[in-house]
Amino acid sequence: MFHYKSLGELQQEAQDLKVNLPFSDKTSLLAQPLTISGKTIPNRIVIQPMEGCDGTADGRPDELTIRRYDKFAQSGAGLIWFEATAVWEEGRANPRQVWINDQTLDSFKALTDRIRETAVKAGQPVPVIIMQATHSGRYSKPHGTPEPLIAYHNPIFEKEKPVTDDRIVSDDYLYRLTERMGEAAALAEKAGFDGVDIKSCHRYLGSELLSAYTREGDFGGSFENRTRFLRTGIRNAQQNTSSDFIVTSRLNIYDGFPYPNGFGVGTDGSITPDLTEAKKLIGILHNDLGVKMLDVTIGNPYFNPHVNRPADIQPYELPESPLVGLARILDCAKEIQQAYPGLAVIGSGLSYPRQFADQLAAGALEQGYFTLAGFGRMAFAYPTFPKTILAGEPLDPRQCCIACGKCSLLMRYGSKAGCVVRDRLYTELFKEASKGKTPVVC
Ligand SMILES: Cc1cc2nc3c(=O)[nH]c(=O)nc-3n(C[C@H](O)[C@H](O)[C@H](O)COP(=O)(O)O)c2cc1C
Asked: In angstroms, what is the span from residue 389 Cα to ligand 1's centroid?
C-alpha cells in the first residue's frame, strides 16, 4: 500500500525493488512551453483523456461533461486531451459516451469555446485541446450491454464470454472506419479542437488491430497489415484538415498479453515488453507521416489494469508492486522518446505517486523519459494540481488521487465517472450505483 511519508521512503522502496524512478525537484521544467504544428502548448502538463460517461443520449457533452471541462480549463494544464469520442454510434462504449457527428457538432464547438473562455477568465493560459476519436470495438456497449465488434478472436478475453464469428468486423468495415476517422478529424477541426487523436490504445478496436496476427485479409498478419488502420486513419485525418491541425494518436506500445494476442511483446510467448514493432511503427508515423506528438500508454484497463494504471488494489491479487508497474510505464515511454528525440512523447500513469507526482514528472522530463507529462486520475481528484505545480508549490496530499479505483468502478457500474473520494457529487453517485453490488475494486 502507498504509505510513504517522504520521497526518501518511496525512493528507498524503489531501490529495494530495483526499479528506477527518476525524481527531481526541478518542477519548473514543467512550466516550459512547447510549440507543435504552430500551436503553443503553454506548459508541459497534460490532462489525459478521462471519460465521464455523461454525455446526452445523442452524444452531446452534457451538464457533468461541461462541469468537468470547466475544472480542467481552470486548472492551468497546457494540454487537455479530450476524452474518448465515438465516431459511430455502434462503437460507443456506453450509451452516454460523447459522439461527434453533423448533428452534435454545435455542442462540441460550444464546449471548446467555453474551455478557452473559462481558462482566460480564470487567469490561466489557453490550453491546446485534442479530441480522441474512438471506436470501442470489443468494448462497445451503445445500448448499455455488450455488443462487441472485434478484430479477431482472442482466447484470453473470450474464455468466459465467447464472441460469435459474425462480430468480427470485415475489411470493408475497417476501410470505411478509416474514412470515418478522416471525417471525424474534419468535424473536430470545425468544432474548434486543435487536433485529433486516432485512438489506438487500451485494446479498443484500433489497438486490437495491432496484434491481429491471426486475422486474414488486409488488416491482419503482417506488420504492414496490422498497422494499416492507424496509418490510413492518420493519413485520412491529415488530408481532411489544415496543415496546422495536429494529427496524433494515443498508442498502446505494449499490451501485456503474449504473442499472438498482444502487441509490444516478442514472439517467445513471454509478456516482457519488446518495443521493436512499436518503434518501427512510430518511425513511420513520425518520419514518413509527419506526426510530431504521440501519447504513449500500455495495458488494458479491463484485463490487466495494474499495467495500465498502477494502484494498491485491483480485482485480483496484484502480481507486482505498483512501483514496478509505474516504472514499466515510464521505461516504455523512455524507450520511445530516446529512439525519436524529435518527437514530443507524452507519458502516462503519473497519478499513483500522489504528492510526489510533480517531482516524478520533473525527473522524467529532465532525464528524457518524455516531453510532456500526462496525468489521468489526478485530474479527477485534484483538478487544481497543475496550477499548484506551476506556482512552484508542493502538492497537497489531502487532495491527491489515492488510486482507489472507484472512478473506473463507477464506469463499470454503468454510472458516470469522477472522483468518489474528493468530489461529493460522485460520492453520492457511487452510493447509488453500488447499491446491491458486490463490493469489488477495479
Ligand atoms: C475513469 C477513467 C476514464 C478513462 N478514460 C479514458 C479515455 O477516455 N481515453 C483514454 O485514452 N484513456 C482513458 N483513461 C486512462 C487514463 O487516461 C490514464 O491513462 C490512466 O488513468 C493512467 O494514468 P493515471 O495514473 O495518471 O491515472 C481513463 C481512466 C479512468 C480511470
From this structure: 21
